[in-house]
Amino acid sequence: MLKRTRLLATVALPIASLSFIWQPVEAAMMRPVLPLAGPARVVPVQAEEGQFGDDLLIPKRRNREDQGNGNEGRQERKRNREDDGGGKNNREAKEQLDRARQERRERKRDEQRQQDDQQKAREERRQRQRDAERDQQRQEENQQRNREERRKKQRDAEREEQRRQDDQQKTREERRQRQRDAERDQQRQEENQQRAREERRKQQRDAEREEQRRQDDQQKAREERRQRQRDAERDEQRQGEERQRNREERQREAERERKRPDETAGRPRRERDKERERIARDPSRTTGTIELPFIDGAAVLDSDKDWDNRRDRSREELRREREEKRRDVRVRVPESDRDAQVGWEGRDRVRYESGDRERGERRDRRPRYEDRDGWRVQREVDDRFVINFGDRIIVRSDDGRRLSRRATETYYEDLPNGRVREVIERPNGDRVVTIRNRYGEIIQRSRIDRRGREYVMFYAPEIDRDSRPTFVDPGERLPPMRLTIPVDEYIVDTSAEDSIDYRDFLGRPPVEPVERVYSLDEVKYSARIRDKVRRIDLDTITFATGSAEISMNQASTLRRVAEAMNEILDKDPGETFLIEGHTDAVGSDESNLVLSDERAEAVANVLTDVYEIPPENLATQGYGERFLKIDTDAAEQLNRRVTIRRVTPLVKPVAMAE
User: Fold this and answer.
1) pLDDT digit string (tens) for 314-326?
2) CB-based contact 404:433 (threshold 8 Å)
3) Which comes out higher in pLDDT, residue 85 or 211?
4) Burial class (CB in 10 A: 0-12, 13-18, 19+), 438
């Protein structure tokens, strides 16, 4: 019994206890590791990269070992107590048990190490599997991305190919279109060339016809000139006889005047005054008002007549004032038109602008210009306006109707800044272009022939840049004019001797320097400015009272003056002549202004119709009874006259003509 007990204690109990110990270990190996409910006795240390399992399992394994060792210890102490009675006999069994226990511990350690290695291997396999799955997923994503990129590249390539094909198609279409355009242009060019050839042939035929017509016209003109010359000779002869009769009539009239019981009775008319003749031969010797060298002759200068007509003071006071102002006036008589304009800045650099320089908008009717400040229209007769401003009264007319009498077309165009361009086309292809500002004042006038050559008559662009609403007489800023040349070199009458060279007289320069370019209106309305140039009195044109008609007999007396004007125009087609109309003092101021303007226009029409002077080279203005030649309020034939002046150096730069 004792042996069985010892055997049980030494063999069976350790084996049984081993089975009890192995079962929980095996269960622990099979079940998952759960987190401890209580606080952790061991603080895990973060594993380094690639290390998993071993370091984390060591604390758990030690706990289990400690628990197993505790159980075994208790069982060992129990067996020891049971074996204490056995004494030395049990010592061998104890040693065997210790060896078995030691072997079991080693086997446990080996098994535990093997389990740890297996757990580590499983973790490594799981990690490799996760890495493989991530690599597989990453590879699949890369493959998907590559497939998307390949599809995108394929779509881009397809779009690029489509675009390239579209560009090629468009290029082919453009080439076809250019080819069609080139063919059309070639066809159009051929048509234009054919049309140009036809046009040249037509122009050549027209030129030949025009040349033939011109030759015929020249022949006809020569015949007409010969006829006019014969008529003029007969008219001169008739005129001489008429002058003789007029002298006899004047003698009889003077005889009747002497018999009249009034203050002028017995005073001879238009007899020479010796004192006035002396002054007229050398006006530079006096600073007083120079009068025409015959009895009842008015002042020579129109500006002096203007002063004498002022009503604020007596004529004697006004003349004394002018005489005092003239004492300090030093006059230099220019030697040429260029010398008269010597003070102009940049006169050698004058470059005019063509009348066609701007593009205009065509008007459908004739323009009506603005009135200047202070101007009041008192009367309107046809296209003439009698205007009152300040203490002056003037007549104003539009010469466009006179210029367009032989025109094929006349039209108007609006330009910037309120300006208007008037274009008159002639049958021979010439065009007369006039540019006016908003007040109707002429800025520029020129004639452009069919070859494109332009001849300028008026050129004062500064009045467009400084267009004031109120008219200011530029002569009011100048001192009283002092005439220093003989009167017969300043004024000539067509009834004088035939030895007068009108060509030389009209071609002479102004009698004093010209300050600047004046507008045509400034020249017309300023007696002081007009006095700068010489004048011809057409006293052979004798108008009836209240009439502006000119008979052919009287028109023939203009022949020599007209020939002189044509000679001047042959040298410079841009010359300008001012024709002034005058009346006697019978009648109202308004009616006399209109009548005098009609007389000036009648003479201009005769010069154009009979002597072929272009109308654009002529300007007209009526002055009524304002500038009497004979100082009388009665009806006087010499006061019903027309005057001609060459005003070219006043209205455009001379350097332009040169």
Assistant:
1) 888 888 988 898 8
2) no
3) 211
4) middle
DSSP state letters, 46-84: PPPTT--SHHHHHHHHHHHHHHHHHHHHHHHHHHHHHHT
Q: Report strand pairing: 642-646 vs 535-537.
A: antiparallel
How far is Cα 28 from Cα 213, in angstroms, rounded to an integer? 140
* Residue pair 380/388 in contact by the 8 Å Cβ criterion: no
pLDDT for the residue numbered 236: 63
Provide mean pLDDT across the span 260-283: 67
Distance CA 123, CA 573 (A): 119
DSSP bridge partners of 398: none
CA distance 621 to 581: 6
What pLDDT was estimated at residue 260? Answer: 45
What is the distance, to the nearest Å, from the Cα of residue 44 to the centroid of all Cα atoms in its chain?
Answer: 92
Q: Which long-range contacts (CB under 8 A, 24 or more apart) does 506-510 make?
A: 506/534, 506/536, 506/564, 506/565, 506/568, 506/577, 506/644, 506/646, 507/568, 507/646, 508/534, 509/334, 509/335, 509/336, 509/337, 509/339, 509/340, 509/649, 510/334, 510/337, 510/340, 510/649, 510/650
* Cross-strand partners of 18: none
Q: From CA 554, how far away is CA 235, in angstroms rounded?
A: 8
Instruction: Report, as an integer, the average pLDDT of 586-615.
Output: 93
Contact 106, 113 (CB under 8 A): no
- Write the pLDDT tens digit of every residue in 381-436: 888 999 988 778 999 998 888 999 889 999 999 998 889 999 999 999 999 999 99
pLDDT of residue 403: 92
CB 527 within 8 A of CB 309: no
**Residue 345 scores a pLDDT above 60:** no
Q: Which of 587, 585, 594 is nearest to 627 (CA)?
A: 585
Of the chain, the percentage scoring pLDDT greater than 70 comes to 77
Q: Compute the distance between CA of residue 534 and CA of residue 300 in angstroms, rounded to an integer.
A: 11
Under the banding of pLDDT at 50, 70 and 90, the label for residue 599 is: very high
Concatenate the DSSP letters of all residues of 139-169 into one string: HHHHHHHHHHHHHHHHHHHHHHHHHHHHHHH
Q: Residue 525 has which token pair?
A: 């309305």
CA dist 178 and 165 (Å) reads 19
- Per-residue pLDDT tens over the stretch 199-209: 888 878 877 87
Residue 283 corresponds to which tokens in the numbers above? Answer: 């006006």
Residue in the block written with tokens 């002497």: 258
Q: CB-hemisphere CA count at 13 Å for 571?
A: 11
User: What pLDDT is recorded for position 45?
Assistant: 42
Residues 29 and 64: their CA atoms lie apart, in Å, by 12
Average pLDDT estimate for 15-43: 49
**Interatomic CA distance for residues 628 and 624, integer angstroms:** 9
| Integer CA distances (angstroms), 587 to 26, 71, 463, 542, 628, in order | 156, 165, 36, 18, 14
Strand order in the sheet with 376-381: 376-381, 384-389, 392-397
According to DSSP, the residues that pair with 411 across neighbouring strands are: 423
Query: What does DSSP say about strands 454-459 and 535-537: parallel, antiparallel, or unpaired?
Result: unpaired
The residue with greater pLDDT, 270 or 321, is 321
Mean pLDDT of 442-461: 90
Residues 6+ apart with CB under 8 A from 648: 337, 572, 574, 575, 576, 654, 657
Beta strands per DSSP E along 546-638: 577-581, 618-622
CB neighbourhood size of 578 (10 A): 23
Q: Give the DSSP H/E element, type plus range, for residue 645.
A: strand 642-646
